[in-house]
Amino acid sequence: MEDRSSFTAETVALQRAFESARPAQERLFCDPYAVAFLRPGLRVLAAAARTRLLRRAAVGLYDAVAGPGPRPSAVARTRFIDEQIAAAVEPGGQCVLLGAGFDARPHRLSGLAGCRVFEVDHPATQAVKRAVLGRLGVPGGHVRYVPVDFEVDDLASALREAGFDSAVPAVFVWEGVTNYLTRAAVAATLDTVHYLAAAGSRLVLTYVDRRALVEPSPFPEARRWVRGVARAGEPWTFGLLPEEATEFFAEHGFWVRVDTSTYDAGRVWFDGRRERGSRLYRIAVADVVGAPAAR
Ligand SMILES: C[S@@+](CC[C@H](N)C(=O)[O-])C[C@H]1O[C@@H](n2cnc3c(N)ncnc32)[C@H](O)[C@@H]1O
Questions:
Q1: Core-most of 56, 100, 219, 255, by most CB within 10 Å?
Q2: Mean pLDDT, to the nearest integer, of 23-50?
Q3: Could you give the angle at the alpha carbon of 223 between the alpha carbons of 219 and 229, nearest 5°?
């Protein structure tokens, strides 16, 4: 990853801003901070989506460029993970957002207010996030920022230095990140999470179906999506076959409770809407198993 703020993180913020602009009774979540992370051109698009007359045009313009997969998939995964966090965090507990990007959950999910939250991200993206939240005056006494490059840095030391407590169960969220890493970095990060996590900890993560990375792909939405992120300078480099995922995670000490696609996860929420999530974009929920050897 280059030394600049992540464009795909900004893209997810736009996708969340679009969803947040829907009427309160229809939207799957509300992220009032998302728009603040957008460059002026994208902010105009998000503002247009807030007016009833222009919403369809603004969102339609975005989907016409990005293709049908990315936005509904991001919306479904956001809602799914919101629910997983709400179910798993406890007051006084810990939550670690790995590759947090412009995710504003520490400020919008009430369940995280009483937790210690660690935001781990590439330093360039994290610096922009902190500057924006600082300008907005968003209180964040419960958030610790941990700048880490998963490809090169020592995540365990960084989290410990930031105050992560290996005796307290934690919820780890790794959303929209593994697909940008090398297999070695994914494996090393999983091993570190397993090493750091107390019994009772949980990991919620996303991965892409490896068949999205080949051409021709069996997923019709893959080509435009994969080419789009590559053009943005953040190519997808890692994926798993769903049928091998359970074993892969087990090798790193995780027992998979749920492994679904954003298409299947989103079915119930998108009932009555024309859009759907994507079969290539997957979300897994796993428990930490086995006691780490030494701490
Ligand atoms: C698509 S964004 C997802 C952000 C956030 N999790 C969300 O869902 O809104 C990808 C994130 O991965 C982070 N990332 C990519 N490669 C990384 C690396 N080598 N080390 C640390 N973070 C990385 C980027 O900085 C960015 O925040």
A1: 100
A2: 97
A3: 120
